[in-house]
Amino acid sequence: MGSRYSDRSDVRPFTCHPNCAGRRFLAQAESLLTAELKKPTITTIQGLAILGPLYVAMGEDAAGWLHHGMAIQLALDMGMNLDSTVLNGSERFPPEEIELRRQIYWALYCDNKFWSSYTGRVCNMLDSNASVNLPAFPQANRDGNTRRLAVDALHYVLCTHGQILENIHLNMSVIN
């Protein structure tokens, strides 16, 4: 993604057009993605979520929506819409993975609301289909890491903003 803003000629083969920057890296990412989709992991979801906005930045909204949709579908297939702390089964998730799954779910949830607002398309991640707790609003921490506190607060606010957007989208679709 960062190569789109580089002045280096090795990442920008045609200096006259900004959308060509980083195309080589995008082609490589798509090649790797093809193999990843055969046995997807959490990293596959993260990669798809990153590629979506990259395509939009290059003026390819449909490809961005498609990658975003694949990220959502894989997240739902992997049960990220369910509270990982209470899942039954032989395999329990370690606390770090539970938190990672929660963060990814809510990041995709927010992205979905913003994508829907941008494109006018229907939201596919709804509160009613999930049991993942909202991230807690961060309290002041003892280690003094104000940057982490700010990031956590922003994540919380974006999640609650996403819930408001969902209600707006649902109410607008009822009116139409």
Automatic annotation (TrEMBL):
Pfam families, A to Z: Fungal_trans
Example GO biological process: DNA-templated transcription
Keyword check for Metal-binding: yes
InterPro entries: Transcr_Regulatory_Elem (IPR051615), XnlR_reg_dom (IPR007219)
Signal peptide: none
Keywords recorded for this protein, A-Z: DNA-binding, Metal-binding, Nucleus, Transcription, Transcription regulation, Zinc
GO molecular function terms listed in the Swiss-Prot or TrEMBL record: DNA binding; zinc ion binding
Coiled-coil zones: none
Keyword Nucleus carried by entry: yes
Start and end residues of each Xylanolytic transcriptional activator regulatory domain: 64-141
Designated name of the protein: Xylanolytic transcriptional activator regulatory domain-containing protein
Naturally occurring in which organism (per UniProt): Fusarium sarcochroum
